[in-house]
Specification:
The structure holds two protein chains of two kinds.
Chain A (H helix, E strand, L loop, with lengths): L5 E11 L2 E12 L3 E5 L6 H9 L6 E6 L2 E2 L10 E4 L11 H10 L5 H14 L4 H4 L9 H13 L5 E5 L7 H18 L3 E5 L2 H7 L2 E6 L2 E6 L1 H6 L4 H6 L4 E11 L2 E6 L4 E4 L14 E6 L13 E12 L4 E7 L6 E6 L8 E6 L5 E4 L20
Parallel strand pairs in A: 3-8, 3-9, 6-7, 7-8
Antiparallel strand pairs in A: 1-2, 1-4, 4-5, 9-10, 11-12, 11-14, 12-13, 14-19, 15-16, 15-18, 16-17
Helix pairs in contact in A: 2-3, 2-5, 3-5
Chain B lengths: L11 H6 L1 H22 L13 H8 L1 H32 L6 H13 L2 H12 L4 H8 L13 H25 L3 H9 L4 H29 L3 H5 L10 H11 L3 H35 L6
The chains are: A alpha+beta, B mainly alpha.
Chain lengths: ~375, ~300
C-alpha cells in the first residue's frame, strides 16, 4: 500500500439533520505523524474519524490524500484501517480467521495470507500457536485489543484510525497497550489518527494533538505546546488546569500581568490567550493553574497565597492538599505538597508567574472528563 | 480465559418448586402422548390385545392415504421457504430501525391476533372470484378473467403466509438487529463489500435464528387444518395429513388409525427439525473453517 506523504482535511463538515456534529475541520497531516483528536464525548472527534474512514459521508469539505481527493471513494476501497472502541471482532471466526478476513477480500495467494497473519499476530505479541484457534469470546480484553489491531495492521493500511482503543481496558493494561501502540507506530511509521478523551493518552502518544469542542477545532499543537500554552479556558481545563481564581487586571508588565484577587492579594501571571492584548486595567478575568504547579513549599520569587488546609490526599508521588483561600473560604484550590500536613492548619503556597495563566471569564462549565465507559458484559 | 463449564448441581429446593409444573406436564402432555402411542399400536376401538404396527402399515400401504405426506410437504415447504426468504432482506433493511417502524410492526403483528377462521372467511370475500382483489385487477385491465385464488393450493399458501409470516419476520429481525453494527463497519474497513459482508458476517450470525424460525414455522405450516379446509380443496389438492387423520378418527370412526397417522405426522416433523438443525451446524462449521469461501 502506498504510504501517505500528506493527508489534507479541508473544511470537513458533517450534519445530522440540523445538528452539526463537525464544522469546518481543517488539518494537514504529514506522513508518519501520530495525531490525536482530543475532547469530551460529543465534541465531534469520532464523527471526524468516521468521515475520514468513509463510514460517514461529508456534508461539505474534502479529504485529500497525496493530492488525490478520496472523500467520494467508499470506505472499503480507501485502504484505511480502523480499530473500533468495542473491537468489533467477528465472534464466529477464530483468531487466525479474524486476521485473514481482510486479506481474503483481496486477490492474494494463500501463502502470502498466512505469512501476513503470522507477521501481524507476532507484531502484537499474540502467540499464534496458543491463541490462533481460539474465538474472540475466549480471549481477555487485552488480547481482544491486540487481535483488533493485528487484524487492521495485517492489511498494511496507508492510514490507521484508532477510536478510543484503550477505553475498555483497566489501568494497568491501558498503560501496557499504550506503550505497545507507541512502539508499533515507531516500528511501522504508520500515519495514525487516534481519538481519545484522555489527555494523558493524547499527550504521551502523539506528535500533534487536536483539541476539539462542539464539533470545531479548539487548538492544534504539539503536546508540549498545548500543555504549556492552552489558548482558551476550555483547553486549559482539559489539560488539567483545574484551579480557578477570579482576579482583576491591575496592569501589564512586559510579558507578565499584575492582577489582584478578590481578597486584595496581588499576583503576577501570564496569558497565553490570543485576545489578551486588549485587556484593560480593571477587567475581570480568571487565573488558572494545575494542582502540581501550585506548591505547598513555595520557591522564592513566586506568587504567595495563604489558606487553610481542608483535605489531604496522598496521590503517590506527593500529597494533594485542598486549601480554602484565606478571606474567601468558598474558593478552594488544590495544592501539591511533598509532606503530609495536618488538617485545618494555615498554609502558605505559591506558584511561578509563568504557570499562572489568565483567561477571559467564560461561561464554559469545566470539561467533563468521562473516565469510565460502558463495558460490554464480561461473558461475551 | 478458557470456557469453564458449570457443573450441573441438583438443587432439591428447585426441584420441589418445579414439582407442580412437572405434574401438570406429565398429566396434560406426557400421559396423553403415551396413551395415544399405545392406542396407535392396537387395532379396534380399545387399546387391547397385542401390540401391532398394522395401523402404520395400513396407512403406508394405501396410496390414497399416504399421498397426504407429499401433499402436506407441498403445502408447508413453499410457504415456509417463501416467508424466510422474504424476511431476511426485509429484516436486513430494517435492522437499524426505519421511519414508521412501530406502525409497520403493528401492521405485521395484527394478523397474529386474528383467528385463522376469520382470516379464511375474509380471504373468501377478498380473494374470491367476485372479490375486491379480482375486481380491482380487472378494473385496471391487468387481467381479463378472475384469478382462482381460493379453494385451491394457492389459497392455503396465502392463508398460511398471512398467519405465520409476522412470526418469522419478527424473529429474524430480532436476530438481525442483535448483531453489533460495528461488525459491519469493521468488515467494510477490512475491504469487504456490502454483499460480501452479508455472506461472511451477517449470514453466519443469523443462521441459528433462521434455522429456529424455519423449524417453528415449518411445524406450524405442516399441521395446518382449518385453512386447508376453508380456503383449500381438502379432497385432493390440500388433503394434508391432519385432514386425513381427522377423517380416519371421526368420520371412519377409527381413532387408533387416526392416531397412527397423527404420530406419523409428528415423526416427520421431528425428522425435518433434526435435519435442519444438522444442516445449520454444518453450515456454521463451514463458515468458521472458511470452507464456504467465494460466497
Amino acid at each position: 500500500m502506498e504510504k501517505i506523504k500528506k493527508l489534507e482535511l479541508q473544511g470537513m463538515t458533517r450534519a445530522f439533520g440540523t445538528a452539526k456534529a463537525l464544522v469546518d475541520f481543517n488539518l494537514e497531516i504529514a506522513g508518519g505523524t501520530f495525531v490525536s483528536l482530543l475532547g469530551p464525548s460529543g465534541c465531534g472527534k469520532s464523527t471526524a474519524l468516521n468521515c475520514i474512514a468513509g463510514l460517514l459521508d461529508l456534508t461539505a469539505g474534502a479529504i485529500i490524500l497525496n493530492g488525490q481527493p478520496i472523500h467520494h471513494i467508499p470506505a472499503e476501497k480507501r485502504g484505511i484501517g480502523m480499530v473500533f472502541q468495542n473491537y468489533a471482532l467477528f465472534p464466529h471466526l477464530n483468531v487466525i480467521r479474524n486476521v485473514s478476513y481482510g486479506l481474503e477480500n483481496r486477490p492474494m495467494p494463500r501463502a502470502e495470507i498466512e505469512r501476513r497473519v503470522r507477521w501481524a499476530l507476532d507484531l502484537v505479541h499474540l502467540d499464534i500457536e496458543e491463541f490462533g484457534h481460539r474465538f474472540p469470546a475466549q480471549l481477555s480484553g487485552g488480547q481482544q485489543q491486540r487481535l483488533a489491531i493485528a487484524r487492521t495492521i495485517a492489511l498494511e493500511p496507508n492510514l490507521l484510525l484508532l477510536d478510543e482503543p484503550l477505553s475498555n481496558l483497566d489501568t494497568k493494561l491501558r498503560n501496557e497497550m499504550r506503550i505497545e501502540i507507541k512502539n508499533m507506530h515507531r516500528q511501522l511509521g504508520l500515519t495514525t489518527i487516534y481519538v481519545t478523551h484522555d489527555q494523558s493518552e493524547a499527550m504521551s502518544l502523539s506528535d500533534v494533538v487536536v483539541v476539539m469542542r462542539a464539533g470545531r477545532i479548539e487548538q492544534v499543537g504539539t503536546p508540549q505546546a498545548i500543555y504549556d500554552c492552552p489558548n482558551s479556558l476550555y483547553v486549559a481545563d482539559f489539560m488539567g488546569y483545574s484551579n480557578r481564581l477570579p482576579v482583576q487586571i491591575v496592569e501589564r508588565d512586559g510579558d507578565e500581568w499584575r492582577v489582584q484577587t478578590e481578597t486584595g492579594v496581588t499576583l503576577r501571571a501570564t496569558s497565553t490567550y490570543a485576545g489578551s492584548a486588549n485587556w484593560q486595567p480593571g477587567e475581570r478575568v480568571v487565573a488558572v493553574s494545575r494542582p502540581d504547579e501550585l506548591l505547598a513549599e513555595p520557591l522564592p520569587d513566586t506568587n504567595q497565597m495563604r489558606g487553610t488546609v481542608h483535605l489531604v490526599d496522598f496521590v503517590g508521588k506527593a500529597y494533594e492538599i485542598l486549601v480554602r483561600l484565606e478571606g474567601k473560604e468558598e474558593t478552594q484550590l488544590l495544592v501539591w505538597g511533598q509532606h503530609p500536613i495536618e488538617l485545618e492548619r494555615p498554609l502558605s503556597f505559591g506558584i511561578r508567574p509563568n504557570r499562572l495563566l489568565l483567561f477571559p471569564m467564560d461561561d464554559t462549565p469545566p470539561a467533563v472528563r468521562v473516565k469510565t465507559r460502558y463495558r460490554e458484559p464480561a461473558w461475551q | 480465559m478458557v470456557n469453564v463449564r458449570r457443573q450441573p448441581r441438583i438443587s432439591w429446593e428447585a426441584l420441589l418448586l418445579s414439582l407442580p409444573a412437572l405434574l401438570f406436564v406429565v398429566a396434560m402432555f406426557i400421559l396423553p402422548f403415551l396413551f395415544g402411542l399405545n392406542l396407535s399400536l392396537h387395532t379396534g376401538l380399545k387399546a387391547e390385545g397385542e401390540l401391532t404396527l398394522s395401523n402404520y402399515l395400513q396407512f403406508f400401504n394405501d396410496p390414497t392415504q399416504s399421498d397426504a405426506i407429499g401433499i402436506t410437504f407441498q403445502v408447508a415447504l413453499p410457504v415456509t421457504l417463501f416467508s424466510i426468504v422474504i424476511s431476511i432482506p426485509l429484516a436486513y433493511y430494517m435492522r437499524r430501525g426505519i421511519r414508521f417502524e412501530r406502525f409497520i410492526t403493528t401492521l405485521l403483528i395484527l394478523p397474529l391476533t386474528l383467528g385463522n377462521v376469520m382470516v379464511a372467511q375474509s380471504m373468501l370475500m377478498y380473494y374470491g372470484r367476485q372479490g375486491w382483489f379480482n375486481q380491482a385487477l380487472q378494473a385496471i385491465g391487468l387481467i381479463k378473467q378472475p384469478l382462482a385464488l381460493v379453494h385451491n393450493w394457492i389459497g392455503v399458501e396465502i392463508a398460511l403466509f398471512i398467519q405465520n409470516f409476522p412470526f418469522v419476520f419478527l424473529m429474524i429481525l430480532g436476530y438481525m438487529s442483535g448483531i453489533n453494527p460495528d461488525l459491519e463497519r469493521a468488515s467494510r474497513m477490512l475491504g469487504a463489500s456490502a454483499w460480501r459482508t452479508f455472506w461472511r458476517v451477517i449470514w453466519p450470525l443469523i443462521l441459528p435464528g433462521v434455522a429456529i424460525a424455519f423449524c417453528l414455522n415449518f411445524v406450524a405450516n405442516f399441521t395446518v387444518f382449518p385453512s386447508a379446509v376453508l380456503v383449500g380443496r381438502p379432497d385432493d389438492l390440500t388433503k394434508v395429513l391432519s385432514i386425513v387423520a381427522f377423517r380416519a378418527a371421526y368420520e371412519q370412526n377409527n381413532p387408533a388409525y387416526g392416531t397412527a397417522i397423527a404420530f406419523t405426522m409428528g415423526i416427520i416433523e421431528f425428522l425435518v427439525v433434526i435435519t435442519v438443525l444438522w444442516l445449520r451446524n454444518r453450515m456454521a462449521r463451514a463458515s468458521v473453517l472458511g470452507a464456504g469461501k467465494g460466497a
